[in-house]
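We modelled the chain as a single entity of 113 amino acids. Its sequence is:
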Amino acid sequence: MTSDTTPTPQMLLDELPARFRPEVAGTTKALIQLDLSGDDGGLWWVRIAHGRCTVGAGPVDKPDVQLIMSASDYVRIRLGQLDPIAAAMPGGPMRVVGKYGTAIKFAKLFRTA
């Protein structure tokens, strides 16, 4: 990815397994649904289990947490331009549905792009 090209959510999600920090995850098991609106938006999922990260597109049944935001805000979070904890605060651009603690843990499991 070149520095003059803004990555899409799909590009960043495809990189998550390589950016995963299993030493931070430990025994974490979680299924996260990303619901991204706007240009390049869509539904994606991230599964953390057995020290591994897998990703895919589409809806999932019974995610532990659902993160709802614009695709552009997700890109800013992954690039380190928007703090995910601040984004999830009341009035922030991200809505968290489900286990808030899982969302906080999720924010720490990956190196930024």
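As a brief sanity check on the tokenised model: The first strand starts at residue 30 and ends at 37. The CA atoms of residues 34 and 67 lie 5 Å apart.
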